[in-house]
Each structure stands twice: as structure tokens, then as C-alpha cells.
Write a structure and sequence with these properties.
14 strands, 15 helices, single chain, alpha/beta, 344 residues, globular
């Protein structure tokens, strides 16, 4: 069985495994206070344009999302997000478990717009009973979105501007950030994202690391006591150097960007094959996630050799499915899938 259902099926890039082995018997301070975490932080700060930011390392995406969000919000506040957003549909109520409601905004393509944020904010404060309701306290987006779509720099700028005007911190989930940055449709750099958000994270789990996410916090108000929140939420890894070594390796000689670009290129080959066959695409994704709409009998045929994710039923005879490439996807696996698509 050849697996395309997600982008964290493999272990870690060989360069990371090699460095972990090489440093295995070194003694270092714990909890992210080691030289490897320090080196990784400096590399990330440099890619953010030397911006005044703090960098923290956590183990996984869900943990990162609820830690950042709960640190930013007061008890009576919630977080605005797309109805399709990861924190709303795929994290088992982790944010709600911290006592903060996800305030879902309608979204067809996975993105939310600045005017939606403004309308939600104004609707709350214009309601005479607003003190009996959950107050919008921050905005959550992801790049790429859950549907593989991308915010343009202009769209992120608009969100930044309205969030700044309304004093709503803007947090960007970057679990797949590398695949967004290196997409042929991408229009932003890490520096742009650092300048246009209050906090974001760089995903490692889905982009070459064994595990780990790097949280970048620009807003000084969100930095206060953040390590306390990491500890309280079980995110302060005693052997923190395991995270530092991985991110230091990923950001040495452009490895993170190189492996992300390769995954995107393979995904675009799949996209072209689906389109050439005459299949429609559920979302216009130029990242490592592709969402073709296939006849259900074609889906069953492909399932004989391939594992991929069901997304949603489109009509009685067709469904949207998701194929993911990753940093480790083999070219021959994509070649074989394309031949089988052509033979359907």
C-alpha cells in the first residue's frame, strides 16, 4: 500500500537523524536552554528579517495552538476562525477544553477575510447583551489553510490592519508553512509573515522533523509569561535540545525550503494529472494537498493500491478526496499513481 493520506507518515529527514545520533551523548541544559535551541532561534530570527521576536519550541501542532490561544485570551474571550479551520474541526475541542470558545466564521475555501472579522467584532459590541456572550479576543488563520489554499500578502495585510485597529491579536498556524512558502502561487516570505502577525509557528512535524513546532511571537504582550503557559500545558520538553537540533538542521543551508518545494512540485504533478483526466478539483490548492473530485467507483479502484483521505461527498456518485505529498514522498510513487489515474 502506497500512502498519500497525510504528510507526517515518515520519520525524519536523514540529516536530522544523523545530527541526533552525533549529539546523543552530549550533556546540555534542559527545557530549551541549550546551545542547539539558541542556534535555531537565531537562524529563525534572521529569516524573519532580524525582527524583534521570541522563538519557542513545542512538540506538536494541537499543543501549540491551544497553548498560544489560551495564553493570549482572557477567560471570557474566544477566538475567531474559519468554520473549516483546524482548531474548529480536527482538534477534538482542544481549545474549548482550555475554556475558550472557537467563534467560527463561514468559509468555503478555508480562508476568512478582513471584513468578516470586522463584522463579527462589531456584531458583538453592538449587541446590547454583549456582556452575556463570548467576546472575540483574537483571530486564528492557517497558511496553508485546511483546504490547501493560500492567503496572498494583500489578504494577510488586510487582516493585519483590521486586527491592529480592533486590538485583536492575529495568530497564524503554520503546521504546513513550508509548503505554503514554497508554493508556485506563494507571495510571502517568513519576514512578511513575522511583520504581519502577532504570533505564528513554523511546522516541523509535517515538514521533515520527527516532531516539533517553532512558535514565533512578535507582540510583546503575548510574550509575557509565555514559558509559564508552555509548562502548564505540558509543552516544556525536558530534553529540549531534541527540538533545537531538528530546527537548527532544517534551517541550515535552506533544507526546510528545499524539501518543501520538492513536495509541492510532486503535488502539482498530481494536480495536472487529475485535471488532464477531466476531474474537477474541490479547492484551488497549489500546495502539497490536492483535492480531486472522483467518481466513487474510481475511488474504490485507487484504494486497491493507495491510501488517501476521504474529504466529503459531492453528489450521489462523486466524492472529494485528499492526496498529500510530503518532504519524503518518492518520485516513483507519484509516477505510479499518475499511470493509474490515466488508466481509470
Amino acid at each position: 500500500m502506497i500512502r498519500f493520506e497525510c504528510d507526517y507518515l515518515e520519520g525524519a529527514h536523514p540529516f536530522i537523524l544523523k545530527r541526533l545520533e552525533e549529539t546523543n551523548f552530549e550533556q546540555t541544559a534542559g527545557y530549551g536552554e541549550d546551545p542547539y535551541c539558541a542556534a535555531a532561534r537565531e537562524k529563525i530570527k534572521e529569516l524573519c528579517g532580524g525582527a524583534d521576536v521570541e522563538v519557542h519550541f513545542l512538540v506538536g501542532g494541537t499543543q501549540t495552538n491551544f497553548t498560544v490561544i489560551s495564553a493570549a485570551l482572557r477567560p471570557h474571550q474566544g477566538v475567531l476562525a474559519a468554520s473549516t479551520g483546524h482548531i474548529n474541526v480536527h482538534e477534538t475541542g482542544a481549545v474549548e477544553a482550555t475554556g475558550h470558545k472557537v467563534l467560527a466564521l463561514p468559509s468555503e475555501d478555508g480562508k476568512i477575510r478582513a471584513d468578516q472579522v470586522r463584522k463579527a467584532y462589531e456584531a458583538h459590541w453592538n449587541d446590547k447583551d454583549h456582556e452575556h456572550m463570548v467576546q472575540p479576543g483574537m483571530v486564528y488563520i492557517s497558511q496553508p489553510t485546511e483546504n490547501g489554499t493560500l492567503y496572498s500578502k494583500e489578504e494577510l495585510q488586510a487582516l493585519h490592519d483590521v486586527c491592529e485597529e480592533l486590538s485583536l491579536p492575529l495568530f497564524l498556524d503554520g503546521a504546513r508553512l513550508g509548503y505554503g512558502l514554497m508554493s508556485e502561487a506563494g507571495t510571502m516570505t517568513l519576514r512578511d509573515i513575522a511583520e504581519l502577525t502577532d504570533a505564528f509557528y513554523i511546522g516541523g512535524t509535517k515538514v521533515g522533523a520527527l516532531f516539533g513546532e517553532a512558535v514565533v511571537i512578535g507582540n510583546p504582550l503575548l510574550r509575557k509569561d509565555f514559558r509559564y503557559f508552555i509548562k502548564q500545558h505540558g509543552g516544556m520538553l525536558a530534553k529540549g535540545r531534541l527540538l533545537g537540533i531538528q530546527f537548527d538542521t532544517l534551517f541550515t543551508e535552506g533544507l526546510y525550503f528545499e524539501i518543501s518545494k520538492r513536495a509541492d512540485e510532486l503535488a502539482m504533478r498530481l494536480r495536472r494529472a487529475f485535471v488532464k483526466k477531466g476531474y474537477e478539483l474541490r479547492y484551488d490548492s497549489c500546495t502539497n494537498q490536492q483535492f480531486p473530485i472522483l467518481p466513487d467507483d474510481h475511488i474504490e479502484k485507487l484504494k486497491e493500491k493507495y491510501s488517501f483521505a476521504f474529504w466529503e461527498a459531492v453528489d450521489d456518485g462523486h466524492s472529494a478526496v485528499r492526496f498529500c505529498t510530503s518532504w519524503a514522498t518518492k518520485e516513483e510513487a507519484v509516477d505510479g499513481l499518475i499511470r493509474d489515474i490515466e488508466a481509470l
